[in-house]
Amino acid sequence: MKTHRMDRLTCRQAQEKLFDYLDREIGERDRQRVEEHLAMCEACTRRFGFERKLLDQIREKAGRQGLPSDVKRRLAAMLRNI
Ligand SMILES: [Zn+2]
Fold first, then answer.
1. pTM
2. Cα(39)–Cα(41) distance, integer angstroms
3. 3-class secondary structure for the chain?
4. 23 C-alpha to center of ligand 1: Å?
5. Where on the phi/psi map is residue 55: left (φ > 0), alpha (ψ -120 to 50), or beta?
6. Domain residue ranges in the chain
7. Ligand 1 center to residue 63 CA distance, Å?
8. From ligand 1's centre to the CA of 27, what distance in Å?
9. Cα–Cα distance, 80 to 29 (Å, whole number)
C-alpha cells in the first residue's frame, strides 16, 4: 500500500470539511486528513462531537430519505458560524 505524506489541515480547513465529513460526502483523502487533524486537536474533536450528535438527531428525524439539500446547506452555514 502506497502512503504519501499529507499536508496537515489547519483548524479552519478541518472545520470547513467537518460537515461534509459527518455527512459522508467527502473523498477518502479528505476524510483521512480530517481524522488526522482530529487526532491531534482537542478543540476540533469537541466541535466534531457536538456536530455529530446534532446531525445524528436530525438524521433520525429525517429518516431514510436523508436530509434535503437546502437543509444541509443551511446547517452547514450555521455550524460554520458557531
Ligand atoms: Zn483543530
1. 0.64
2. 6
3. CCCCCCCCCCHHHHHHHHHHHHCCCCCHHHHHHHHHHHHHCHHHHHHHHHHHHHHHHHHHHHHHHCCCHHHHHHHHHHHHCC
4. 19
5. alpha
6. 11-80
7. 31
8. 19
9. 22
Output the nine-digit C-alpha cell for 28: 477518502
Q: Residue 37 — very low, low, confident or very high, per pLDDT cuts 50/70/90?
A: very high
> Mind listing the pLDDT tens digit for each residue in 42-57?
999 998 888 888 888 8
- Exposed/middle/buried for 61, CB within 10 Å: 0-12, 13-18, 19+? exposed
**Taking a C-beta distance cutoff of 8 angstroms, is the pair 55, 22 a contact?**
yes
